[in-house]
Amino acid sequence: MKNWKDLLSADPTDWLLEESNPSIRYFTLRWLLDKPESDPQVVAASQAIAQSEPVQNILLSQRPEGYWGSDPRPHHGTEKYLILLLWLGYKGDGAVRKAIDYLLDGSILEDGAYGVEIKGRKVFLPCHAAHALRLMLWYDYTYDPRAHKVLDWLLSTQHQEGGWPCLSKVKGHSCFWATSAVLQAFRDLPSDWVTPQIEESRHQAIELFLESGLYKHHREWGKPSPRWFKFGFPAHWETDVLQVLGLVAPYVSPDDERIQESLQIILSKQDESGRWPCEVHPKGGKWIEKFVPLEEIGQPSKWVTLHALHALKRLYEKEKG
Questions:
Q1: Domain final residue, candidates 152, 186, 211
Q2: Distance CA 239, CA 246 (A)
Q3: Of the candidates 166, 191, 211, which is a domain's last residue?
């Protein structure tokens, strides 16, 4: 099988390993160089993340009760901040645990559903349930019975066609953003949690993406958003063909016709140095700039490059973790 690095114009790994961005360095060591958590370089990078300005700014802005901002409702005042810390690779402390408890106590119902009040009505959100599950897995809440309850609820809400619905809408059609979020949570599951039911659920979701060319399912409701083909970090509540390719990559052949259009779009964006540009900022993510400087549009992006290389590596090396 072809080496994934043969698809690169040049190898940008040394650029990604620069110590100026410890989050990028940490994930490069883990994802691209396969260093274990115990490796001294990984440990040092993780410690540098904890002391980094973005992480410290987020933690310092947290309210004593555990939430952020002026809205004390658990979903509104905690989740996006916790997800940003996860994206940065921060391993957490007591303040993060307080925030997670605040989120779970206020958003996870007895049956594992993620329920919030929007415009005066209660809605249930598989996408945010998947985010909550990822937070529990990353911050070592695997012992918490709510983790399994959320997972079971997600399995129960999957459509027969393989996707997860947007239950906040009157017509709960399959939403590719929600489906992507659930696949991210599945990717993070401990191996001993992966039952035949989960394997089948994941298979159905992956087949839905593959049969849709990774994005075309949205043609039922109009033309796909151009943001599917513009890459930036973080994706926030959206997704794009780069993220979806990374999720399906371990379960599909690199020669599968169903991924070729998206794969060529991704490869066409790298420059002569093997770097990918930042093309878009997260939709609804202006608040992120208070903590993390957003990359300059049109300039080489370490975040996009990291995720592009990781997707290609997963595609050719079948890395399922």
A1: 211
A2: 11
A3: 211
